[in-house]
Backbone:
């Protein structure tokens, strides 16, 4: 059965109302834009207000500080609206909420094919309350990344390579996880062996090339604003990121919750990590079991999900919770699971979303 956009808007309305009510119950005004601004939110606001800056750290002059270590597309959107006279932070919040709504509608109209079967509705609710939900409603670029990623994946699957490349470029300028889309597109297109090699190369060059153009725009803009091509890397260098095994990192997050059971945030982070891991494992196992009937859309989503899951976990000193927030489109594959299982995962996501919002609002979750 198919309907218009009332269903996804209703689902998003439930999620948005839950976010607002939880904030109010915890003593934070949902109408105050400061409620939705924590930690790196200030850096995105600075980029929107004044553009990039880069300077030597006051306490450690050998290192670089500033806001050049963050991606600009989201800030450009609400910063541009601010230039029209709108309040800066409040506009950032509204943009986040609108992208969150747009993502649910887009999922419904594309991969979920406007279906109203129980599993599809469960997947839609899972997307609305997906792990890391609070970042999609705060002054962070995660909702913009989710929207542009869904658009990219759908357009790539439908063979609209130029449009997919443009969406990929926007995703790549929104958040580091967006950079995964360029090699993803190339790999997925080049392995379509039923297509002549020359045509595969052409499609990959268009889609991946346009996606990578987003990263070039970032580098060029930072060169113009800071005088350094590598401004992003200079700022990030002080966090001393190191490569690590994503499976070991996942295990460490789970064990940390057990070892620090008295620390609520450690337990909540471990439970969210467990849910993400379980969901990813279930969709992979389900895909293997039905591999003969696996369609191109699902294979594309599986490759994307594994790469996006691994990226933040393969680096130290990176927020695992924000990395998990990039996996919202995984909801499409939740719809492929048995209906009772899909709803069980969704109810778990709802409970965890409320739990994690508490720690975000009190400043514990960063």
Residues:
């Amino acid at each position: 059965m198919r309907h218009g956009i009332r269903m996804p808007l209703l689902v998003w309305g439930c999620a948005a109302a839950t976010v607002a009510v939880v904030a109010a119950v915890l003593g934070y005004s949902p109408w105050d834009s400061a409620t939705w601004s924590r930690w790196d939110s200030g850096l995105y606001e600075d980029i929107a207000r004044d553009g990039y800056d880069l300077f030597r750290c006051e306490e450690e002059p050998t290192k670089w500080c500033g806001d050049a270590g963050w991606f600009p597309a989201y800030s450009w959107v609400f910063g541009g609206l601010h230039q029209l006279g709108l309040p800066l932070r409040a506009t950032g919040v509204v943009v986040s909420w609108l992208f969150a709504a747009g993502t649910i509608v887009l999922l419904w109209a594309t991969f979920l094919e406007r279906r109203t079967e129980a599993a599809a509705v469960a997947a839609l609710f899972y997307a609305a309350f997906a792990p890391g939900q609070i970042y999609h409603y705060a002054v962070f670029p995660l909702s913009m990344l989710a929207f542009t990623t869904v658009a990219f994946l759908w357009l790539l699957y439908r063979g609209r390579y130029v449009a997919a490349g443009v969406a990929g470029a926007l995703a790549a300028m929104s958040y580091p996880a967006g950079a995964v889309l360029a090699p993803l597109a190339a790999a997925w297109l080049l392995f379509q062996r039923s297509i002549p090699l020359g045509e595969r190369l052409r499609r990959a060059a268009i889609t991946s090339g346009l996606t990578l153009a987003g990263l070039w725009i970032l580098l060029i803009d930072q060169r113009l604003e800071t005088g350094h091509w590598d401004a992003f890397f200079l700022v990030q260098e002080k966090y001393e990121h190191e490569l690590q095994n994503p499976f070991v990192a996942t295990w460490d997050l789970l064990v940390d919750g057990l070892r620090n059971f008295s620390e609520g945030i450690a337990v909540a982070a471990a439970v969210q990590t467990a849910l993400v891991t379980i969901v990813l494992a279930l969709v992979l196992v389900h895909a293997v079991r039905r591999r003969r009937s696996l369609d191109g859309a699902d294979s594309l989503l599986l490759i994307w999900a594994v790469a996006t899951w691994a990226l933040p976990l393969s680096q130290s000193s990176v927020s695992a919770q924000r990395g998990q927030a990039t996996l919202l489109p995984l909801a499409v594959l939740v719809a492929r699971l048995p209906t009772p299982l899909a709803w069980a995962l969704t109810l778990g996501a709802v409970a965890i979303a409320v739990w994690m919002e508490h720690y975000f609002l009190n400043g514990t979750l960063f």
The mean pLDDT is 95.
